Each structure stands twice: as structure tokens, then as C-alpha cells.
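Holo prediction. Input below; ligand is guanosine-5',3'-tetraphosphate.
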Amino acid sequence: MATIEQEIKKRRTFAIISHPDAGKTTLTEKFLLYGGAIQLAGSVKGKKTAKHAVSDWMEIEKQRGISVTSSVLQFHYEGYCINILDTPGHQDFSEDTYRTLMAADSAVMVIDASKGVENQTRKLFKVCTMRHIPIFTFINKMDREARNPFDLLEEIEEELGIDTYPVNWPIGSGRDFKGVFDRNKHEILAFTANNGQREVEARELTLSSPDLEQVLGQELSNTLKDDVELLDGAGAVFEQSMVDAGKLTPVFFGSALTNFGVEPFLEDFLRMTTPPLPRTADIGLIDPVKNHFSAFVFKIQANMNKAHRDRIAFMRICSGKFEKGMEVLHVQEGKKMKLSQPQQMMAQEREIVDEAYAGDIIGVFDPGIFSIGDTVCSPDSKMQFEGIPTFAPEHFAVVEQIDTLKRKQFVKGTSQIAQEGAIQIFQEPESGGMERVIVGVVGVLQFEVLEYRLKNEYNVDIRRQDLPYQYIRWIENRDLDPKSLNLTSDTKRIQDLKGNHLLLFSNLWGIQWALDHNAGLSLAEFSRN
Ligand code: G4P
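Structure of the complex:
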């Protein structure tokens, strides 16, 4: 029997971040394949569904049940217990995607080799750096025409502000893709289009092998020798501590679809990434092994099925062991309770869990008591984790009820949905009442969700008018009267429900204007209050 410490030390909990279509799903499938969690790649989730039009969404959600946007996949590989946190992209992109990163210990960034750093990767990366977690880069689709690898690295360094260390180096790309050179082993991993089979051929071929030219061709072998010399001479040095601090990203080149370089990547990644780390709470750092059970809620998923109004609260266990039926303290409510129907995702299956450890994610039945960021812990060691920041929404609309007699339901509905963290609500200071609110969302699909749920769960029809703003900033100066600010005519002053003052901007230029014309003004992209 493994001890609690052994169980925790073998856990690796990470998120895969990418721009849609870079290959996140494909890479995840291949990981699961190695772990034996699935038999055949291509079955992780109905990824095609993500490409459906917005209007199909309700139906899709019904078919997919609640598990789709909430998936955490757990599987075992070579003695590790791996938890992959899904970061929904495409239409499902929402604040949840950001919050999920709060539960991860590290991140894998998948980049399309022909496209480089894309928009959604940039946004997710920002959240990762906020937490200083290790980030590993997989440059995918090398079997297609790719950009020059040096340019790709330079782009990552410049755009994202992180140093890169290529662990392997590609030899050609597209039709000329011959494989990668492993810089640690000084060995060439040769690529033969193998229809996604698990095996890849590792050649005992070094840069000084006499048959190098014969295998790679003269041009590619010369390029490889030059590239390697350049990297060894002028490239970054590998330092694990820099990786741990999120300042240096180990980079791997490969092709998820053809299954090339995936297993070596997984092995190196698991070796270099971190087991569950201590987390900050009000009583200090909480050690995953030494402390008793503790967890925080990072996501609340409403049940889309009308017959079941319940919700599922997803918790990241930060320390100790969870056992089914154990009594825990819900710190924010100050109440002792038992967590009902604790579940865990094993590939596509949801299972009731009997025990889980620091690093694991469990979903528990929530009758409406949990909020994002809440702490649950063993009653004998009361503590409270740092809250989860509120991230900046990017789409805004004025929302009001059509039938003014439904005011109560409207207020209740919007407030509850906001409490789950699906939307954020704001008010115009002069408007006073709650009949008319400004709703902000990270992913535009959340507007549809709001409309659907208000109608179906609260029986309220709404009118929505989209606003042209794209950026929101929290005013950090506590005693400042927003009316005194000198702003462009298309900047709007609003307040959140906690009374914080914020500004809505149509463009980045407006933000700069505000900063330039109001000495001492401090604006934040996310709020910790
Ligand atoms: P995502 O989850 O990041 O959105 O990306 P996903 O894995 O769904 O991959 C997006 C598309 O890119 C898919 O093609 C997938 O097959 C392809 N792809 C992923 N990895 C590679 C790779 O290494 N090489 C090449 N050439 N293609 C790759 P699709 O046509 O949109 O879907 P499908 O018809 O293949 O399912």
C-alpha cells in the first residue's frame, strides 16, 4: 500500500493551453493512449461539436451532459498519476478556462508550427505567468510546412517574455520532415510517416555518424549541424530552477497527429514538471503532504438539465487525502459538512471516488452553497486559501428584463449565474436599480447561456444590447472619485456589485490616454477583491 506521501508525489496536474486547432485535443488523445486510458485515439470528446454554430449549443450541451466543459482526465503512466485539466477553447472559451489554470501545477503550451504564437495562447499564457508555474512548449504539426524553428523560438521569447530551451531540434518540416535531434541524448529520432502508430524509430545516429548524410540528405544534415552548433554556442542553458520559476520553457518539436515525438515529450515533461506544490493560505504555506485535507473550489458547473437544478463544484485538492464520507469544514460558510457524491473523471467516465489526494480534482454535488474560490478543509486545521482573481471580460452588453414585473426573478437569476462565475455583472453608477445591468463575459457564448438559463430556470425573457467596449480595467486607487478622471468620450465608468470602480474602453488607445492624462492612475486587468 502506497503511503499518502507516495500517492501525492506521483501526481502531476497540468493544463494544456493552446489556440483552437493547434492540436490540444489530438495531443491529449495521444497521452491517454499511452496511459492505456483509451484504446483508440479519436475518442476523447466530440471535438467536432465545438465547431457547431452557437444556436446548436443547447442541444449539444444536452447530449454532452455536464461533463464536457468540466472534464478533468486522470490516467496512469509509468508510475505517475496524471491529471489533465481541460481548458475549453472555441465557443466554450470562458472565464472558467482561466480559472482552470488556478488549479494546475504546470502548463503545456501547444503551438502550431506554421502559425506561431496565437491570440488565445497569449491570453492563457498571461494567466500562467501570473502564477509563475512551469510552462512546457510543444511545437506541433511538424509534418506540415512549418516556420523556421529559430523564428518560432524568437517569437515565443519576444511575445511572451519567456526564455526558451529547445530539448530537441527539428530536421526539416512538411514533406521533408526527417525527425528531431535529441540534444540530451545526441541522438536522432527519425520520422517515418507511420499512420499514428505508437512506435517511432529511434536511430542510433549522431552528428558524426558516417551515414548521417545518407539518411538526411546533404542539405538537411548540414543545416542540422549548423543549427546545433548555433544552439550550443548561443542558445540558453538549461536550468531546472528557471523552469520551475516559469522563466524558461523547455521546447519540443513534434507532430501529435502522426504520433511523432509525443512519448519522448511526455516522458521528459513528466520528469521535469513538478508534483503538487505548497499553496498560500491565510495561515501560511500549506504543504501538500504534511497538512491535512484541504481544497479550493475553482469552478462551478450548472446542470443544464432543467429537471436537476443542482450544480457541481470542482475542487482542487491542495493537501492530504480525501476520503468519501469524511467530514469537512466549508470555511466561508463556517459549516461542517460531508461532500456529497464526490466524482472524478477517468477519461470519459465519471466515477464516484472513494479517495483522492493532493493534486487531484474532485467534483461534488453543490446544492448552491459554494462560490468560486471557497476553501474546504479538515475541521481540525482551519485555513483559507487566497481567492481566485476575477479576470477581465472581453464582451459587454446591456441586459434588461422585457417584462418589468419579473424584476425579482431577473435580479435573482443574474445574481446566481454571476455567483457561479459564468458572467460578471456591473452597474452604471447613475442608473441605481438592478433592472438594467451591464453583463461582461470572457467568451461570447456565455451570453447565450445567460439568455437560455434566465428563460428556462427563472422564466425571464431579456433584451440584450451589445456594447462596443472591448477592454475593462479595475481602478486600483482606492480613494479616487472616477468622476474626476479625465477620459476619452468613449470610455465608460461602471461599478461591480462589490462597489469597485471600473472603466470600459473601446480600444487599447483609450487605456493609454487615461493613463497619460491622469497622473498616478493605476489600472488592473484582474481583481483580487
Ligand atoms: P485543438 O484541440 O487544439 O482545437 O486541435 P485538434 O487536436 O482538434 O486539432 C485540430 C486539427 O489539426 C485537426 O484536424 C487535427 O487532426 C489536426 N492536427 C493535430 N495535430 C496535427 C499534426 O501534428 N499534424 C497535422 N498535419 N495535423 C494535426 P481537423 O481536420 O480539424 O480534424 P480531424 O478531421 O482530423 O478530426
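Residues 279 and 286 are 5 Å apart (CA to CA). That is the main takeaway for now.
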